[in-house]
Amino acid sequence: MYSRCALSEADVVLLKDFLNNYTLEKVSVSAVSSPENASAHVRFFCNRMLKYVWDETFQEFRLLKGMDNGETKLSDLLDGAEGFTTVEQTRLLEYYGLNSIAVEVKSYSKLFVDEVLNPFYIFQIWSVVLWSFDDYYYYAGCVMFLCILSMSTSLYQTRRQSIALSELVAASATQTITVLRKNGKQEEVNSTHVVPGDIIVLPSHGCIMGCDAVLLTGSCIVNESMLTGESVPVTKAPPPYSSVNYDVELHKRHTLFCGTEVLQTRFYNREVVKAVVVRVGYLTTKGELVRSILFPKPMGFKFYADSMKFVLLLFAAAVAGMSFSVYLYMSRHADVETILLRTLDIVTIVVPPALPAAMTAGTVYSQNRLSKLGIFCISPPRINVCGKVKLVAFDKTGTLTEDGLDFSAVIPAVNGTFSEVVKDASRLHVRAPIVAAMACCHSLTRIDGELKGDPLDLSMFLATQWVLEEPGPDTSRYDTLSPTVVRPLAVKPLDSDDLDKLTLIGGLLEMPYEIGIVRQFPFISSAQCMSVITRDLGSPFMRVFCKGAPEKVIGMCLDSSVPTDFHQMLTHYTSTGYRVLALAYRNLEPSVTWRHAQRVKREQIEVDMFFAGLLVMQNTLKPETTPVIKQLQKARIRCLMVTGDNILTAVSVARDCGMIPNGDTVVNLKLVTAESNSVDQVGL
After folding, report:
1. Which residue intervals define the domain P-type ATPase A in the entry (predicted)?
2. Where are the domains of the chain?
3. Structure confidence at residue 396 (pLDDT)
4. Please, which pLDDT band fits residue 676 given cuts at 50, 70 and 90?
5. Above 80 in pLDDT, residue 67?
6. Lesser CB count within 10 Å: N end or C end of the chain?
């Protein structure tokens, strides 16, 4: 028996979730002290793999978080990069628990109990018992056989896929990590023993991240396909020194996520590549993903509610029939056994007991088909929900269309006027601003000697026939003063021995044309563009190049540099399915130094730019796109496209794949002003 009391005295807490479901959790008291109070004990309980700790200040249980608690600033992460002593780490390990994500595989007995407690199976067993009393053995035996067979198959499939999921989650989860202690020494520890605040050393050959960590020094190239599905490597860099609170989503460009693969690391000035652990276990991004699989949100579908109403309606009809049967049998003076058997038999006729077995058989068959496609399902009833899907939303690039893009053309702009369309970018003058923009404005890097990066960037750069050179081998030390360099293919890299061979023209040295990429501002969806700060070899000033959505880029440019027929040219290519990007540039003042370039905000340099031209890329449909769309439409499932590309490009792709039938009119709705509440309708 339980009685209500103050939370501060509770031995058991009653939890109510947002769906009004109740659960009981036991409150434990740990002898380990908290990081804030070394002399206090900790009261806590665990629910759905998360730990809730008693907060004396607020007199409530609060979710135990890592360093993403809303109070840790970026400057705190950078200043506190000294690590813990072994004693401090042991105490924190007892407080946070092991850094592990373990998926429980239920035994057959537990799965059997969960399955048998299903109301339909209880009703089925009750019906079989009832028929046995009525000497209805053959049909009862058949139903019982189907019940046992479907239940056994369901238990086997569920347990097998639970094991597969557990093995998938546990893959590469346990490994050895190098931790930097407060005395400056490095120590090898098991990855399950790291805690928030630990300073870990990332190996040059890469690794699988066992926790969420913020990069402190150096840079990393990471494959995040396990989390995002995107196969393009992502470059991670340390965050700026700022008083802004650390936020995982806001600062994901500086965060290495658990489960992702670090392909390579690079370090500066003989320093090792270090990162500070911010989240462990189920608090990590991978942990959240696994929790969403283990504890899916209940789906309230009208179909399910209507089904329950229908069953209740049938039961009400059965009750009415039972009442009338009882009246008839009693009026004829039938014995009690006959009355019970005949009246209860009505329920088994109105509500068919074999229905659960038939439903389970279909579900198990579907589950087996999904498993052959590599899709795990540990909650078979959810498969039935998929039968009610009426709409499917697709991403465009990489889903409906190929991952890669093919270079189609470039349209330079000079003094506010478009030049002729150029199909071969290598024909342009190497010193043309649009060529330099194509060669510099990207996030490409070399991994094992091969260029890697966004397919669009790769196609754009290869079209210039330039060469990208990084200082030193992939994983070796390189100094920040030696940036990545791009140069035309015909130009040889400049060595110190070549200085004597330089030609003196008019009192000036004729320097080989090379461009060093001083700093990158990576593409972010909110900005719709990326930019780089560069310096030409021998140039007294730096330049900024920008690439992004045309509507966004021209907003950064001087009006005089944008051609008057810009929108007509853009519409011409986007309406035929091409992906179009705009390029722009500007020269920085000679007073801007390398140090200033590393600290300047992108908003300060992405202004007063000169429009350089348009880059036209072709993104072809995948061969399987159109057949799949037709198959879904045949099943009366509506298909939508969700994309950040130009709307005309999206409409063209939708027509090509059959998502929009030929001849249908597409209407583009645009809000003119908030005051007038008027809407401009434009037919496409």
Report:
1. 175-293
2. 1-64, 177-280, 393-401+622-683, 406-492+511-618
3. 84
4. very low
5. yes
6. N
CA angle 82, 85, 89 (to 5 degrees): 105
Q: What's the token pair of residue 288?
A: 């959240």
**172 confidence band (pLDDT: 50, 70, 90):** low
CATH of 393-401+622-683, picked from 3.40.140.10, 3.40.640.10, 3.90.1150.10, 3.40.50.1000, is 3.40.50.1000
DSSP letter, residue 607? S
- Tens digit of pLDDT for each residue in 369-414? 887 877 777 667 677 777 778 899 998 877 888 877 789 899 999 9
d(C-alpha 555, C-alpha 607), whole Å: 8
Burial-class residue 246 by CB neighbours within 10 Å (0-12, 13-18, 19+).
buried
Q: Which residue has the higher pLDDT, 290 or 545?
A: 545
SS3 content of the chain, % helix, strand, coil (to 5): 35, 25, 40
Burial class (CB in 10 A: 0-12, 13-18, 19+), 476: exposed
**H or E, element range at 89:** helix 86-96
Determine the Cα–Cα distance for residues 217 and 642; give it in Å rounded to an integer: 37
395 has catalytic annotation: yes
Residue 52 DSSP symbol: E
136-155 burial code (b ≥16 CB/10 A, e <16): beeebeebbebbeebbebbb
As a whole number, mean pLDDT of residues 20-43 equals: 71
Question: How far is the C-alpha of 426 from the C-alpha of 429, rounded, in Å?
Answer: 8
The C-alpha angle with vertex 227 and arms to 161 and 260, in degrees rounded to 5, equals 105
- Across 153-177, average pLDDT: 75
Q: Residue 490 in 3-state DSSP?
A: coil
pLDDT at 678 (0 to 100): 45
What gap in Å lies between CA 171 and CA 287, rounded to an integer? 14
User: Smallest Cα–Cα separation from 181: which of 87, 75, 76?
Assistant: 87
For residue 584, what pLDDT is reported? 94
Q: What is the CA radius of gyration of the chain?
A: 33
CA 136/CA 592 separation, integer angstroms: 94
| Whether domain 406-492+511-618 has CATH 3.40.1110.10 | yes
Q: What is the CA angle 580-586-587, rounded to 5? A: 155
Average pLDDT, the chain: 80
42 vs 572, more confident: 572
Rounded distance between C-alpha atoms, residue 280 and residue 258, angstroms: 8
Q: What is the pLDDT of residue 40?
A: 62
Using DSSP's 3-state secondary structure scheme, residue 428 falls into coil
- The pLDDT tens digits of the residues spanning 248-281 come to 888 888 899 988 888 878 776 567 888 999 998 8
